[in-house]
């Protein structure tokens, strides 16, 4: 049953509620005015490249070549560098081999040189220059720059192409980092031109200036002595905080109850517990506690800093006592408008559980990621009875001085742009000094040709005075077209209404419809806004339920696409503002242009035609008609077919047997049929009747490894093996039945979701839509009523939190491969995240069923002092290595091991 779309007036309410979605993705470029610079990277002054009077700060900086990850340094560069006089900072340039180094000779291959500068302290970093040889045999194609405070969490702050002419020798290539970032660690990834034999590098230099010390931003009371005393620098922000009381992270009521309960509660006259200046917490009046039995529960708090700042460091003081009072870690998210949050990282509490004191679990911000609002989600350990929180202190720096005289002509707007996917772009100009520039409105221009003035152009979006976008200086813009280059500018309007029209544009090129660079492109959902055939309507609260769904979808922070059948412009806008576009059913050419404008470029004709007993030849004929019709309107749009109901050969008329008949209907083994659609679409549900994987329970997602192989073999047999594959439905139901799918409990549904996504990633699946987001009803024995990540009332299930964790862990990662040395029933995959500068190794025991099942232990070899482990259940753990080995218990719930160096599984016992 299809339910009619509500009034478009609902959009206004959602725009106010949702604003624009903030998700961490690599920055494309930035725009900013020039600044004075000093050499920070310790390059030899009085040398060939740097004269004796060159402005420089004696930072004591040094660099190391990164030999891990997807951009590991070529061995030739490592071998040709000199440890006594490092080539990249000796002040000398090529062609002398004593002043340069070179990669090995490989034509047509991706080769990198990745170095990390440690500036030994935090500085303002304004530019990076690389000297690289350009001739008929050697060239650097481009370089990327990442910045970090702690050497663990990075943010890409720029990329620069090498535009030097052929035979220009060891010439400089410079990147201006815009806006300027504060950082201690600078990672530079230099890409060899794949058409050249080698990449020869002469020098790398980092420029910037000194920076004042971090100051307290969170309005903590400064006591006469102690950690937070009157000698500490503090900015009078007037900051305050509130506890979160709605899903998905509801603070335990006692944490709120015992916080800030009058003058008796802090020993200094009524300051809220989290900012009363007490870090020793010797008096219970300076702390707040959850209720006994709060295992695995949350304490979530949002600080309002009242202006935008660069976050430097965060202190979180909690009690570690007796083993049953322990916060195992927390997540930090930041926002400029209080609506759209970006996750910075997870931080694990590495203290002893039995320290019997308050311990500080510190974390750091991300350079170039600014914040007015800081959300901290603390997780009580799964076996901890009480979460006891003392002080939280947020440190950082001012971005601008609002007390300066107002300018008659406003500065150009400096901004960053980050692509979520091919259709959604996030613009952030929150470091712009709107007060001094007397600006209260902004124009956003997005064009396909470069421009230097906005005269004659119409803004694609206007951030009006007092709008969410104007106040937050942040915009989620949709919908862009795939594989298209855009030129973007943000212009200031002064309160007089006058716009500064001269601009420096930012160039952004979108990826293909099926994805960009990271495995996070796979994350998608099925969510019919107003329900489907088995749906129980919410009556008068239906719109409220839709608002709840959109907020929870947005909070997942990485869902790219939703699958639906109705072409409503209202829904395109609502979901687009939450960062999602649509995969639609194809209903003819009249819808295509509007759908493209709403970000939709994938379409399907059928849903499970084999299950519906549709004739394969008739389906093929219709697909040819639809494909020709679709491509005539939009060459970039993709026809995604046929959405098979299963990948088995149990029934001669269904599944892969139906697919054979479909290909063979042209009489040429599929030579024609394969041209009738662009992407293979399947619904590989692990059905009740499928035989189990040996040694595993029936219905586990490990069956996907066999069924997807059979699908690929079938496609190859018809000459269609190169076609990309998507999954538009897959899920497990928490129902009490068991006639079609195996029934699972909520924890198992969560585990299966994570395992299924990782199997799909390893098999090259481009997009996978989980079926579905919300339960369709409340009947416990109804399969369709229990497939959701949230229940019919909008309350998240364990699978919602599992998807949340999976997205946080893998969204920005690259797939490396299968973990070697393990076999069924043990599974694992390895990933590399350039932003985290770490490997992520997943492991689980697929034979594990319940807590009564024997738990296996993986013995893992590492060269690091210890590893951090994030569980799909939301847990955090630091495991110290003993003689280079850590022991990790395995269950059916995947865990993720973070390590800067590769780890090896020695055994599983």
UniProtKB/TrEMBL annotation:
Region (Disordered): 76-102, 267-288
SUPFAM superfamilies (UniProt xref): (Trans)glycosidases (SSF51445), Galactose-binding domain-like (SSF49785)
Keyword Oxidoreductase assigned: no
Transmembrane segments: none
Signal peptide positions (record): 1-33
Matching Gene3D superfamilies: Galactose-binding domain-like, Glycosidases
Domain of life: Bacteria
Keyword field: Signal
Bias kind Polar residues: ranges: 277-288
Keyword Signal tagged: yes
Protein name: F5/8 type C domain-containing protein
Species per Swiss-Prot/TrEMBL record: Paenibacillus qinlingensis
